[in-house]
Amino acid sequence: MKKYLSYTWILVLLSLSCKTVDYDWEDFKYAPTPKVNLNAAASALPTFSSAKVSFFNMADPDFATSQKFEWELDFHDASGRAAVSEIEVYVSFNKRENNVPVYPVILSLAKVHPNERQFPLPSTIRATDKLFEKVNSFPKSYSFTPAELASLTGTNLATIGVNDYFLFKFVVVMSDGTRITQYNDNSCDESRGELCDCRVGVRFKNLK
User: Fold this and answer.
1) Domain extents for the chain?
2) pLDDT for 61-114, tens place per residue?
3) 10 Å Cβ neighbour count for 55?
4) Please, which residues bridge with residue 33 across strands?
5) Which domain of life is it from (predicted)?
6) Are residues 13 and 7 in contact, defined by beta-carbon separation less than 8 angstroms?
7) CB-side exposure of 191: number of CA atoms within 13 Å?
8) Which of 165, 50, 47 is CA-nearest to residue 97?
9) Residue 119 in 3-state DSSP?
10) β-pairing, 165-174 with 179-180?
11) What architecture is the 27-205 domain classified under in CATH?
12) Rounded distance between C-alpha atoms, residue 104 and residue 97, angstroms
């Protein structure tokens, strides 16, 4: 066993001494990711916290002021070496996609995460996304009615249809000034269960 370990170390040292190429991935930096805790109980229709989607039910005549979309913003930093200066929070109103996720939300076989992502990817900050605020104290809690979100985005509630949605996106600013404006799509996909919540949103339904 001792001889085997010695030979192994010799091979490792030889491989390191013969290295002639520098790779981009070797010059890595620890980075935090946004973390969202969704209050699923506040949703007007059943949902799951892991899905990062809540619902407003337009079947309620008072839905504009009686229903709430509630969530908490924080960040993941497993290494403890990725200091966050602030998180920029953006908000937008969006018309329904051509292919909308099925409802009710279906969980994967592990019964933890949804079996499909709930909002389109990539999660890119676009011209239609409005900077809502910059957060530098965590966690930060949010609570919005449909009327409040419509006011924030300049949206007429009377023109909203089923499966339209409001979406919040995040840009992480690290202590050294680095701005992380977009994460890998797989990391932002709710169905994968990765430790990155780069968006959270609320959809409109009309269910009796």
Assistant:
1) 27-205
2) 999 999 999 999 999 987 777 789 999 999 999 999 999 999 999 999 889 999
3) 23
4) 76
5) Bacteria
6) no
7) 15
8) 165
9) coil
10) antiparallel
11) Sandwich (2.60)
12) 17
